[in-house]
Specification:
single chain; alpha/beta; two-stranded antiparallel sheet; 10 strands; globular
Length: 298
């Protein structure tokens, strides 16, 4: 049996208590296995568990940074169970996010569907003055309601922009409805279309420059091209590549303070593990960029 099979079921498979305990950790990984409003492919409710499992097979040394990022301390929390209604789930997520932020840890939330982001942003906005949101996504998610609820995954950025009045930068967008196209100019959001930014790193600076000092990062994994991540609920062709996503996130972490993040909408399928591994690696790389100055070279 492989050595990795004996590792703990936590993010990174971290076996040393001094790097994985709640007390020692600077980062909390919070699985939220919620899937109630998906509108096409299903399976996001199993995404967080699959990402954590895949992360146990990563090398924890980052050759780009010459660091072992896990040494900041990464603690994996219990999974938040689903609630019977979208409204109750939003409240449960918000209440728990507030509690977790009160212990002064960096929160990485794993979906589940994208609707989880709004209550988490609400909790962050109460803690960090002049918060803005940087969204990597294929979809604008600016609908007022969808399938008879304003708390659908298709409405999440509308809730953040309209209800919370938190400014948003939306990067890599390539799918939206006529309703969203009509309303976007009246909302505190700026869209950077995939057709204008894919393969063009010169666009990163302009996008980042419109953000405030404190930034919440939300990554819908369908923001990447489906050739890299085919297993997501609503894949769209023409997304970001792996290295340009890393370059964008490193630039963001270098020039702004990322105060929290999530990764959502991964939907595992069968024995295909590449997408889960990519999600795990993307989270780990991003944490490396955020906390690079806190870690000595190996």
């Amino acid at each position: 049996m492989s050595e990795s099979a004996h590792l703990p079921m936590n993010f990174g498979g971290i076996s040393e208590e001094r790097f994985s305990s709640l007390t020692a950790a600077r980062v909390l990984v919070w699985p939220i296995s919620y899937e109630a409003t998906v509108s096409y492919g299903a399976g996001t409710g199993r995404g967080a568990e699959a990402i954590i499992d895949a992360s146990r097979n990563m090398e924890l040394y980052d050759e780009e940074l010459d660091r072992e990022t896990y040494r900041i301390g990464i603690h994996t929390l219990p999974t938040l169970p689903p609630a019977p209604t979208p409204e109750q789930m939003q409240q449960n997520i918000y209440d728990e996010a507030r509690r977790l932020l009160s212990i002064e840890k960096f929160l990485v939330s794993l979906g589940g569907e994208h609707s989880i982001t709004a209550p988490i942003v609400r909790a962050h906005a109460e803690r960090y003055a002049r918060l803005s949101v940087f969204q990597i996504d294929a979809h604008a998610d600016l609908r007022a309601t969808y399938d008879d609820t304003p708390h659908s995954h298709a409405c999440v950025m509308r809730r953040i922009a309209e209800d919370l009045r938190v400014p948003i930068v939306q990067f890599g967008i390539r799918s939206l409805s006529a309703e969203e196209a009509r309303i976007k100019e009246r909302l505190p959001t700026r869209i950077f279309w995939a057709k204008d930014v894919v393969g063009r790193p010169q666009s990163w600076g302009e996008a980042i420059s419109t953000l405030t000092e404190h930034v919440y990062l939300t990554i819908d994994i369908d923001g990447l091209d489906p050739s890299l991540v085919p297993h997501t609920g609503t894949p769209e062709p023409g997304g970001l590549g792996w290295y340009e996503t890393l370059g964008l996130l490193r630039a963001l972490a270098t020039s702004r303070r990322i105060v929290g993040m999530d990764l959502v909408e991964y939907a595992p399928s069968g024995d295909y593990r590449a997408s889960a591994f990519l999600c795990a690696k993307l989270i780990y790389k991003t944490l490396g960029y955020i906390f690079a100055d806190s870690l000595p070279p190996i």
